[in-house]
Amino acid sequence: MRNLQSSNSSDQRRHSGVITWPILVGCALFLSSRCTVASAFSKGGATANTHSPSKVETSIANSPSAIQAPRHLASSSVLERRRKRTHRESATAASIVHSRHGHDIEDDAANPHNDDPTELPVLSEIKTQHYADTASAGKENFRQMRRIKIAIGLVASIGAMATAAKLGILPGPLLESGQYGEYTNMMIARDSLSTAVAAVLAVVLVKAITFGYEQGWYNSKIGRKLNHTLAAPLFIAFFPAFSEAEGARFFAGLVTFSNILRLYLAGTGQGESTLAQTISRSGDKKEVLGGPFIYVCIFHAFIWLFWRNSFVGVIAMSTMAAGDGMADLVGRKWGASSKWSWSDGSKSKVGTLAFGLSAFVVSFSLASWLIATGCLESTLGSSDLAARLLLISFVTAFVELLPFGDDNYTVPGCAAIMAAFLLH
């Protein structure tokens, strides 16, 4: 019985050993196949898969072509990187076009996957251009707000003047008794409307001259003299639009005062840069605070002091505007060979002749216009008036030749003194 049991036990051990050895051999073969596949992929430079290999993968790994598979995968990876790089370059080129139209370019500049160092200068240039466009837009918005504030200030000033006229603070028309009459509502409305229209026309004139400069029709020197020649005479010709009240001069002074503010802002870099470039000799904005600014300030003072019922202000401003402006324009073009030897070397005989003739034509035309519209009263006949204005024009033309003094002061000062003595 014991022998039978021991024989059965030994048979069971033999059977279990027969079953166990194949299992162990299979496990060893399985582990060996995994190590072979991992070694092959590591030699080819590919990354190992995280999933367990199937029988098909094991057979492929054991095949002779298994070593070549990672190289194909590596080539595919290189092609994929090149494709992505080409795509990024196309996106960069597109971003340049979009940035010119104000589109956002920050996404391309902040791309953390941009590993191509050759793209960094391009992105830096795009970003710099974007910041420059933003700064330019900010300056333009600032200037636009300045223009709006000046317009609002002008409207508020007109309202304040109208209130002062209504309250009797501003004088009405001068009566024969030497006293001032009532500043009627019709006069107030007329002066308010005339001020607004004159201010708009002044802006239109400056914009027209600036437009010609931007189109390249003339340089800044010619643009400056065009504004110098036309601004004052055209506004003087508009004087009859105001009422006969003495206080109308203060309404008209608002137009010149608004231009003073515009020129000051342009000269200090806070206003229209194109305006500063147009009315300066060399395009430097600081030159606006020189001759052009003095010109408008003197005109503003003559309006408040003499208005339209005196020859002094009218002749002084028309002589300075037309004479000095045309002397520069004509002399610059045709006077290079006819310089005055005793002057500062920049004045020509042709320019002096143009000064005298232009000053005479404009001053005589404006004086006749104001006399015809009832703004000026004169006891002189037309021929006598013309002779005296011709004398004033050519005397001031020679005053402009003097190598000392600023002709922005000497020319209107001489014309005003002569008009006060010769015209009545």
UniProtKB/TrEMBL annotation:
<feature type="transmembrane region" description="Helical">
    <location>
        <begin position="150"/>
        <end position="172"/>
    </location>
</feature>
<feature type="transmembrane region" description="Helical">
    <location>
        <begin position="352"/>
        <end position="373"/>
    </location>
</feature>
<dbReference type="GO" id="GO:0005789">
    <property type="term" value="C:endoplasmic reticulum membrane"/>
</dbReference>
<dbReference type="InterPro" id="IPR037997">
    <property type="entry name" value="Dgk1-like"/>
</dbReference>
<feature type="transmembrane region" description="Helical">
    <location>
        <begin position="288"/>
        <end position="307"/>
    </location>
</feature>
<keyword id="KW-0472">Membrane</keyword>
<keyword id="KW-0812">Transmembrane</keyword>
<feature type="compositionally biased region" description="Polar residues">
    <location>
        <begin position="47"/>
        <end position="66"/>
    </location>
</feature>
<feature type="region of interest" description="Disordered">
    <location>
        <begin position="44"/>
        <end position="112"/>
    </location>
</feature>
<feature type="transmembrane region" description="Helical">
    <location>
        <begin position="385"/>
        <end position="402"/>
    </location>
</feature>
<protein>
    <recommendedName>
        <fullName>Phosphatidate cytidylyltransferase</fullName>
    </recommendedName>
</protein>
<feature type="transmembrane region" description="Helical">
    <location>
        <begin position="192"/>
        <end position="213"/>
    </location>
</feature>
<dbReference type="GO" id="GO:0004143">
    <property type="term" value="F:ATP-dependent diacylglycerol kinase activity"/>
</dbReference>
<keyword id="KW-1133">Transmembrane helix</keyword>
<dbReference type="GO" id="GO:0006654">
    <property type="term" value="P:phosphatidic acid biosynthetic process"/>
</dbReference>
